[in-house]
Design goal:
The protein is of the alpha/beta class. It is 28% helix and 20% strand. The protein contains 13 helices and 17 strands. It starts with a helix and ends with a strand.
Length: 480
């Protein structure tokens, strides 16, 4: 490298180092914690910056061997936890001034051996010294739900409870908590989450419950909880009596034969996402009854995961709950199903601005032996619709993901165009999450024999068929 080149490098480095701290912190915040630590060797200007970051992320899986082992053995977890503990100690053990507090600490870990004790002590120190403002804690367990026994879930609960008992300051600082494979059967989860965790705003459970067919009642008038996420949590019923700050609820997969959820006082609830594949035991329920108690939902997602509908036919009964709905997503509709029944939602929700429909077509799973054991035969939805002549004046965009040039889909789009005179865009997409086991784009592998039109000639032909005879200014957009 000649002298001019060296001068250019030094000049560029000097310009970078002259940036204000908040910009440099923003740069460091975009890389993992190990990379951030290495930047301390760049220059004297950078030497202390990583240890003054206002937001820190320690993710145990970032310390696993590369490529990541599959499955992850206990020895791998211990090695990763040893490295995580060392990194955490390096960042948290250094004293900070009052002006360099940690605004958010995200730590993702396994409760294994003495390492979790070391991390618990470090957390208590920074919390008790007033250095940490908010803690985002993820306690992992890598067993998949089918392979996780009830005794193992109880044991995981004992480990989690033991950790919180040993380090009570952690509960007081928690703003977000995520737990995996925990059975709360033997401890008072309500007291821990809503009496001890006074700062808790976000709660996520992955395959957690309080025992087979258990009920969970939440009555927490003083709670700050604004987001609740449940994944494969097999409560028979979740009854939310009072959660005044709850803004978002996401529940993916339940086992209740009827409605899995009921609301009491949830004045802040704006977003609700319900996703489940109805098994042979699902009897279904009235969505209007589940939504009773809500009054201000603006985003609703219903995902049927390619199986039969788990809601009963309704229309007028939904008007109250849909009064302020702005975005409606109906996902996981089996590709051979009619779509006309979804017009019931449009009539019940005249304020909807975005309608998002996602069609499910997976030839790899359509009639597999494993599926047939758990799920019933798919039956096309039949709703007796009594539609009036009112228009959806606010509807601006229709998205249809998994589009195929099938008669039922084209008929549905035409019906929406006729009902929504102010519609601006009709976006037709192939699929957002293509399946590795499905030969996408191959008609012989399609359940219907139809595939997404990819060349302009075919797209123009479809667009003409959709708009033929209809006066509409909506733009038909094809996207992958």
């Amino acid at each position: 490298m000649d002298s001019n080149s060296r001068g250019t490098v030094i000049s560029e480095e000097d310009r970078l180092s002259m940036l204000p701290d908040d910009i440099l912190f923003s740069i460091l915040g975009r890389v993992d914690i190990r990379t951030a630590a290495r930047t301390s060797a760049l220059s004297t200007r950078w030497r202390s910056l990583p240890w003054l970051l206002p937001e820190l992320d320690f993710v145990v899986k970032n310390f696993l061997p590369v490529p990541k082992p599959n499955p992850i053995e206990v020895s791998h977890m211990d090695e990763a936890m040893a490295s995580l503990t060392k990194a955490t100690s390096s960042f948290l053990a250094k004293p900070r001034s009052e002006s360099s507090t940690i605004t958010r600490l995200h730590i993702n870990l396994y409760l294994s051996n003495h390492f979790s004790c070391d991390i618990g002590s470090l957390l208590c120190d920074v919390i008790d010294n007033g250095v940490l403002n908010g803690l985002d804690l993820v306690i992992l367990d890598d067993k998949e739900p089918p392979d996780c026994l009830d005794e193992e879930m109880v044991q995981q609960a004992d480990s989690v409870n033991g950790f919180f008992t040993a380090y009570p300051s952690v509960l007081a600082c928690l703003t977000k908590l995520s737990l995996y494979n925990v059975c709360f059967r033997d401890w008072d989860i309500h007291h821990i989450l809503f009496d001890c965790c006074k700062q808790l705003q976000h709660l996520a459970f992955f395959h957690c419950d309080a025992g087979l067919r258990s009920y969970w009642k939440i009555d927490a008038a003083n709670s700050k909880l604004c987001a609740l996420e449940l994944y494969s949590c097999f409560f028979e019923k979740l009854e939310i009596v009072c959660l005044p700050k709850l803004d978002k609820l996401y529940w993916d997969t339940w086992t209740s034969h009827y409605s899995p959820l009921s609301f009491g006082f949830v004045p802040s609830l704006r977003e609700l996402h319900l996703s489940c594949g109805a098994t042979r035991n699902h009897k279904g329920f009235n969505l209007s009854e589940l939504l009773c108690g809500t009054s201000d939902i603006h985003t609703l997602t219903l995902d049927f995961q390619g199986e039969k509908l788990w809601i009963h036919p309704e229309m007028k009964q939904l008007c109250t709950a849909f009064n302020k709905l702005r975005k409606l997503s109906v996902h996981g509709i089996f590709v051979e199903f009619d779509l006309v029944w979804t017009k019931a939602f449009l009539q019940a929700a005249p304020s909807v601005e975005i309608l998002h429909i996602q069609v499910w077509e997976h030839a790899c799973e359509a009639d597999s032996e494993a599926r047939n054991i758990t799920f019933p035969d798919r039956t096309n939805p039949f709703w007796e619709l009594q539609l009036d002549g009112s228009k959806n004046l606010l509807l601006k965009e229709l998205q249809l993901v998994g589009f195929r040039p099938l008669e039922q889909q084209i008929t549905f789009i035409r019906a929406v165009l006729e009902r929504a005179p102010n519609l601006k865009r009709v976006v037709l997409k192939e699929d957002t999450e293509p399946c590795e086991d499905c030969d996408i784009g191959n008609p012989s592998y399609s359940l219907t024999g139809h595939v997404f039109p990819k060349n302009k000639r075919d797209q123009d032909a479809v667009a003409k068929k959709i708009t033929d005879g209809i006066v509409s200014s909506a733009q038909i957009i094809f996207g992958c």
